[in-house]
Amino acid sequence: MSLSTNSIFKKLIGVFSIALSLTLLTGCGSGKTAATTQIKQVTDGVEGQSEKIKIRNLLIVKEDTGTAVLVATFVNWADDSDAITSISIDNLPAVVTAKSLDLTKNSPIIFVGEAANADAYVSNLAEVIGHRIPVTVTFAKASPVTLDALIVAADGVYKDLTNLRAKA
Predict the structure, then answer these.
(1) How far apart are CA 108 and CA 111, in angstroms?
(2) Fewest CB atoms within 10 Å of the CB: 7, 98, 122, 138?
(3) Who contacts 107 (Cβ-Cβ below 8 Å, separation ≥6)?
(4) Strands 53-62 and 145-153: what pairing?
(5) The dihedral of CA 164, 48, 74, 68: what is its sign?
């Protein structure tokens, strides 16, 4: 090998080594199936769907009194309207109040929060904070959906839960 060919060869090996090191160190070698690209749940709340009705950030907040309050957002993406007909929390029928439980296209029903327009709760929930319980929602047209909801304490962002609940 001549001096110039040797120099080029060393540069190519150096570039290849750097490229290989970066690929291995950054995890880019995993491609589209990397574990970090497969994350679906980014909050404590679970997500679900019944036909064109999407359910986002569903969880249960348990107050010191034992009352379990539903936190969730329901959005209908279909052109046809639907309605929430019932909600059960840990197989107990929830007390649901709202001006309307009609799900029209892109008009969310929000349980808890500054924009809350509905409220659902059960009294005397026996299950403890940190466990998961079934929450079943039935609709007028769409199929019922049951999600495994996490129970969280009424502290942190849910500390002032009374003021975050919808007033019907």
Answers:
(1) 10
(2) 7
(3) 75, 76
(4) parallel
(5) negative
